[in-house]
Amino acid sequence: MGKLEMLGRWSPFWPVFLLGFALLIGRGAQGWSKEGHIMTCRIAQDLLGSEASEAVRNLLPHDVNGDLSALCTWPDQIRHWYKYRWTSPLHFIDTPDNDCTFGYQRDCHDQHGAEDMCVAGAIQNFTSQLLHYREGSADRRYNMTEALLFLSHFMGDIHQPMHVGFTSDEGGNTINLRWFRRKSNLHHVWDRDIILSALSDYYEKDMDLLLEAIQGNFTDGIWSSDVTSWEHCDDIHSCVTKWAGESINIACKWGYKGVEAGTTLSDDYFDSRMSIVMKRIAQGGVRLAMILNSVFGDTDEGFAAAT
Ligand SMILES: *[C@@H]1O[C@H](CO)[C@@H](O)[C@H](O)[C@H]1NC(C)=O
Ligand SMILES: *[C@@H]1O[C@H](CO)[C@@H](O)[C@H](O)[C@H]1NC(C)=O
Ligand SMILES: *[C@@H]1O[C@H](CO)[C@@H](O)[C@H](O)[C@H]1NC(C)=O
């Protein structure tokens, strides 16, 4: 299976078509920028044990040479395709305005009320699909490659604080403002602008340098004693509930706080939010590795997930 096949028939018109489509019908939310998703997946892949590592390699198409991060943005690329329209609500959660909590029963549904159709439900769904991987290839109901890519992507999204945002402003998408001198919106500031400003101000626009800094901070830096608690997960349902709750809490305390439409966000906002974004990327990566190790590994440890 080639990557091109996987991405669908590529033609020079696709980008224009997709962009037009996204502007017309799409909710702007795309999840962490490609940088955020790539870093989440690289962090995770570096933490895989031998069984999970092998399973991931087996599931990836050959032409990415075993690099999971090369396809971690795939779910954003296909979300408006007819065949994958059902995945669109799986990238985020709308919570009641100004409530600042996440309730699974209350909030995890799509706009028509279909249960579990939100990023928290999607993570449970694709985690339990991947649990069938070890049963062998005979009777697989699901496409395990897609399950891996969706899980890896949605673990990034659930850690992007504004992906668990208020309903009326679509997670900050409708709050138009300026990021320094450029037009942006509050959602996009957290998806991408903060990461790009960090890259250009501190890391010579080199994502590898930023990634090393993040990894250094959880291996023996400021977060090293927190990693065990980040990874803690008894069962996948309570874990996704906790992670979404963390995001809406951060969205309220740091995302929305003091921000009004039409404002200009600059140094003060950037300086106080950058480390939060980096920590969320680290947590997403560490926890994705935890799930993959637990799903593919031979160990008895790990969590119980409904199959
Ligand atoms: C699984 O999904 C990928 C990506 O959509 C596709 O290229 C591949 O053919 C599918 N595999 C099977 C066995 O259907
Ligand atoms: C789970 O995945 C299947 C496809 O594999 C899909 O039909 C279903 O809607 C998904 N549900 C959620 C909550 O992700
Ligand atoms: C890593 O931690 C240091 C503090 O020890 C901090 O100044 C730096 O911004 C952190 N870097 C990242 C990418 O998290």
TrEMBL record:
Enzyme class of the recorded protein, top EC level: hydrolase
EC number: 3.1.30.1
CDD domains in the cross-refs: S1-P1_nuclease
Name of the protein in question: Aspergillus nuclease S1
Keyword Hydrolase in annotation: yes
Matches recorded under Pfam families: S1-P1_nuclease
Stated family: Belongs to the nuclease type I family.
InterPro entries tied to this protein: PLipase_C/P1_nuclease_dom_sf, S1/P1nuclease
GO molecular function: metal ion binding; nucleic acid binding; RNA endonuclease activity; single-stranded DNA endodeoxyribonuclease activity
BP-aspect Gene Ontology terms: DNA catabolic process
Subunit annotation: Monomer.
Substrates-to-products reaction catalysed: Endonucleolytic cleavage to 5'-phosphomononucleotide and 5'-phosphooligonucleotide end-products
Top-level taxon of origin: Eukaryota
